[in-house]
Amino acid sequence: MRVALFLTCLDDTVFPETGKAVVRLLERLGHEVDFPLAQTCCGQMHVNTGYQREAAPLVRRFVDVFAPYQAVVSPSGSCVGSVRHQHETVARHVGDERLATSVRELRPRVYELSEFLVDVLGVTDVGAYYPHRVTYHATCHSLRVAHLGDRPLRLLRAVRGIDLVELPQAEQCCGFGGTFAVKNADTSTAMLADKVRAVLDTGAEVLTAGDNSCLLHIGGGLRRLRSGVRTVHLAEILAGTE
Amino acid sequence: MAPTWLGLPARRGPEKFPAAARRALADSQLRRNLRKATTTIRTRRAEVVAELEDWEQLRAAGKAIKDQALASLDGYLEQFERAATAAGAQVHWARDAAEANAAVAAVARAHGAREVVKVKSMVTEEIGLNDALAADGIAAVETDLAELIVQLAGDRPSHILVPAIHKNRSEVRELFLQKIGGVDPALTDEPHRLAAAAREHLRRTFLAAKVGVSGANFAVAETGSLVVLESEGNGRMCLTLPEVLVSVVGIEKIVPTWADLEVFLQLLPRSSTAERMNPYTTVWTGVHPGDGPQEVHVVLLDNGRTRVLADEVGRQALRCIRCSACLNVCPVYERVGGHPYHSVYPGPIGAILTPQLVGVENASSLPYASSLCGACYEVCPVAIDIPEVLVHLRAEVVESKPHRTAESTAMQAMAWVFGDERRFAAAQRAARLAPLSGLVPGPLSPMTRWTSARDLPPIPAESFRAWWQRERGGAPEGGGA
User: For residue B248, what are the β-bridge partners?
Assistant: First the structure.
């Protein structure tokens, strides 16, 4: 299957290794990956901060760029969630019914990575090897917006060599929330403190998740404390080999 | 001193949410009280909800019934008025807090009452009834234990259901020793001893009161009945002992039929107190000779609700049955409590209801008081998509500002950068070389608020798209499937 990689602006700029891992993984599983260069940002940051009008051209661009593909795959439950639940709202907000229709047509073909692997490709053992003690943070949007359920955990459990430990209160928000982390920096930090404590309690050396935005946040706290725990996107673990 | 609240007469929130939250976060006693209370309630709620196999269907039914009521609210309200009037109640219509307060005060005055007993009620908090009555020389006595605690402390509720959630029992003991005349100085902080002290204090008030004041959980259009759910029995006393009863009811409390209560009497107790059934449910329909109050008034209150109803996205907030499940699961509420919201309605529901009731320009920081984690939507018994409304209200806040702000300038600049892949690629290169306004901390950058507690990763030498072009020679753009 020919798959378009929707990488997110954050991963493209700050976490290129995640993108490379998705490419490696999907190619290893026998699929062709394209990265349409015209993609930029899905507009979620603008929508969530109140700039729906500014987000509208980004939604239009997203639809134009990805409409030709049979499947669009992204290593972000949050951005996939935004495509599913916010793009149509943005189109309506600016009164563009044609855009709303295009959004609805494209939407069912946009998948979060673990969804694509488990539901579309039907694999949970992707042939990965990762000999580390790892704990998994579910992330709010993967859990409650994209409804990924335990797909990421099923994929992780099949990884050879992994020592997967459960994160206490994994369903609790880490306090990132996009611009929430700067607009309500104190409350965000209080939430982060509890998340960091939960991560440290597991004794894991690696914290993983399906969203680099949350990992940027929790990882920023873990590094500030020189905790020695590193953050690694789920795709990079699944792409790992002996 | 009591915190000020938005929307109450002559009161404005003195500070924005982030600043108020910052102070609350530093209160270690408050943090501990909140963590303990919210964790306990939300764990128990999850257990009792899991007992019902048809919870999701109940939730869908609750949503559908409320939507049906809201879609034809005018008709149902008039139906309620006709039915209640026929049963002997007197129905008053109040556009705002002042009209509602005046209606209650007029009833109390007509009976020469200098004291009224109150059932715990959110709507009377919303309209500032106690202060309005006090200005008329009428004392309103709160009879719910937690409301009494808050009233004695000169404080304000910080939770919809558990108004004194911010106080622990040793704080309550000290308060009772100071404020309740004749209390046993050997009073301990055991819950049953504290409850007994309050009961003794309230008993004579109940027996003497001529006028009772309540809200209502539901108003049944078909029968003209009002319904109050409570746990302590103080409500039953207030609703049955006095000769006169005045109930202030928000117009969104309407349910069309008696049978609809079947759904809500299951949804509400499990969502609020995590009980299968609440201890006391009181229903009354007008006046019954020789049984209960012989003069019954109902004040139907708008106070901004019709404006909320006019908003296609925001109106779902009017489905709220005030269970407070969203507060108990909210990671923001759990850490800062209710007071930073400066509203009778705190937490996630308050963050969408308050700005709509008082105007977003008067509560512009509340729609941002959420990480959009979605835990609130998941537990809401009437499926209010709180994150959706928060985002909708944020757009209203942004679009209501007449001038450009530093934020709007930055957002427009970023939208311009994202508007073209060459501009985006150029910005990625620039981010590695020079301090880019938003990405690198500086004294004026919002990123300093990020780096106060978190490190930032270095921007890698090569973006993904640069790698892709180098490795794959820039595959043709937008290629077909």
Answer: B299
CA distance B164 to chain A (A): 21
User: Predicted ipTM?
Assistant: 0.98
Tell me if A217 and B456 make a contact (CB, 8 A cut-off). no
Of all residues in chain B, the one with the smallest CA distance to A226 is: B455
Neighboring chain B residues of A141 at a CB cutoff of 8 Å: 374
pLDDT band at B4 (very low <50, low <70, confident <90, very high): low
Closest residue by Cα to residue B383 from B219, B305, B271: B271
Query: What's the CATH code, domain A2-120?
Result: 1.20.1050
pLDDT at residue number A238: 98
Domain ranges of chain B: 1-50+328-402, 52-143+210-306, 417-471
**The two three-digit tokens of residue A4, written as one number:** 């378009």
A121 Cβ neighbours under 8 A, 6+ residues apart: A29, A31
The alpha carbon of residue B415 is apart from the nearest alpha carbon of chain A, in Å, by 6
pTM to 2 decimal places: 0.94
Q: CATH number of the domain at A133-239, please? A: 3.40.50
What digits encode the pLDDT tens for the residues B264-279? 999 999 999 999 999 9
CATH T-level fold of B52-143+210-306: Rossmann fold (3.40.50)
Cβ contact B391–A89 (<8 Å): yes
- Cβ distance B457 to A41 less than 8 Å, yes or no, reads no
Q: At what angle do helices B191-208 and B145-152 cross, to 10 degrees?
A: 90
Residue B429 has which token pair?
Answer: 């290169």
- In whole angstroms, how far apart are CA B435 and each of A85, B430, B432, B438? 34, 8, 8, 8
- Closest by Cβ to B474, choosing from A37, A190, A221: A37
Q: For an interface test with B, give the residue of A3, A6, A7, A14 to mutate (most B CBs within 10 A).
A: A14
Identify the CA nearest to B318 among candidates B9, B28, B73, B11.
Answer: B73
Rg, C-alpha atoms of chain B: 26
| Chunked mean pLDDT (size 10), chain A, 242 residues | 94 97 98 97 97 98 97 98 97 97 98 98 98 98 96 98 97 96 96 98 98 97 97 98 91
How close is the nearest chain B Cα to the Cα of A57, in Å? Answer: 7
Among chain B residues, the shortest Cα distance to A44 is held by B391
Residue spans per domain, chain A: 2-120, 133-239
- Does B412 contact A175 at a Cβ distance shorter than 8 Å? no
pLDDT at residue number A149: 97
Q: In the structure, what pLDDT confidence band is assigned to residue B449 with cuts at 50, 70 and 90?
A: confident
**Distance separating alpha carbons of residues B165 and B121, to the nearest angstrom:** 16
Distances (CA, A) of B23 to A95, B1, B18, B26, B417: 42, 15, 9, 5, 37
Of A140, A186, A221, the CB nearest to B25: A186
